[in-house]
Amino acid sequence: QVQLVESGGGLVQAGGSLRLSCAASGTSFSLNRMAWYRQAPGKQRELVALITSGGSTNYADSVKGRFTISRDNAKNTVSLQMNSLKPEDTAVYYCYTDRYNSGTLIRSWGQGTQVTISS
Fold it and tell me: Dihedral of CA 61/5/9/88: which sign?
């Protein structure tokens, strides 16, 4: 069973930085697509950043140029470096992974970590 454990959330002032990390276990990590989603109060969960098994990345328009997703296949971790944070980045951030196994898409979520940006 895939387990994802996030860390690194917290409270920072606008303009500051945070680095989120997600440790994965129970999966062939290098084969997995990894992503960060976030959900603000009263809003739908949205994709923030994604990185494929090959290292290609994709970002939400709202975070392009400010956030960077990276992965370390040797350590089974994915990170999200968040710079120039804004109050609207406040949300619970979730680590996500998926990959195909015998034709079935296997998805897993972390428990989430709170990020709060004060103005």
Answer: positive
